[in-house]
Automatic annotation (TrEMBL):
One of its GO terms (cellular component) is plasma membrane. Its main location: membrane. The chain crosses the membrane at residues 12-31, 101-123, 135-157, 169-192, 227-253, 273-292. Keywords: Cell membrane, Membrane, Transmembrane, Transmembrane helix, Transport. This is Peptide/nickel transport system permease protein. Belongs to the binding-protein-dependent transport system permease family. Residues 95-296 form the ABC transmembrane type-1 domain.
Amino acid sequence: MNLRYAAIKLLRAMITLWLVVTFVFVVLRLTGDPTQQLLPDDIGPEIRDYYRAAWGLDRPLWEQYLRYFEAALRGDFGISFRNSQPAIDLIWQRVPKTLELGLATFFCSLALGIPLGVLAAVWRDSWVDRLTMSFAVFGFSMPNFFLGILLILLFALNLRVLPSSGYGTWQHMVMPVFTLATAFAGAIARFTRSAMLEVLSRDYMRTAEAEGASRFRQVWWHAFPNAAIPVVTIVGFSLGGMIGGAVVTENVFAWPGVGRLLTSSVADRDLSIVQGIVVLVAITMVSANLLVDLAYGWLDPRVRVGGQERSR
């Protein structure tokens, strides 16, 4: 892959992360003084001033930003206002559980969405196609919190075959993974079908058929690799979007991950925790998009050549 193409994409990713870090800092500071939320109303002004000084909130905004940005570059997001522990330590304690849920959802979405999309394209306008598209529409139109509640009512309260919340066994993962994977598998199936329909109508597919290639070889050896770029796009977006979807799903199922920590930290106005989690989510999404861009350049040389011409 051309190094200039990769360097341009990496520079854009770094600029995006800087903008996110700056935006988060400014917005959270505009929402008010955290001591008003964390400390009792009847507390004395001297104690309130003590905590504002201890948390660095008494300094000018520009100085707070410089100190925050310098510390963020080292991976230090400050001390949790609520727990008096390093924010990054509290976040990393939750990351493995969110990764466990997210990766299981990601691979289930791929394993379900890509084959369904390919089958829907191969058997266009058949019952397979209609059933797949119905599933896709259901998946990305059903809110996560509503689907999660329905699953709890059915499998935990009525059938009593799965735990309604918590963490620890594979049974605890079934409903959260299904809730998240339904939306992403539907989107992947829809994009895969559209990409495959376009490729299946190309001349080289008719050539492969005329040469006697089996139907399996036509679909998976000739068609699917050429339809991979649109699929890579939605897969990259899904990887980043799963972190955002996990915020709702983790709260519905009381999953002890980063999403649930973010919700409680926003309610407590624990700025250090909120800043750290938002930056972590931004890094995940920017990294996913960067990998998609680099995959573009590897899958289709026309993409990187066009990018080089526009950058001149």
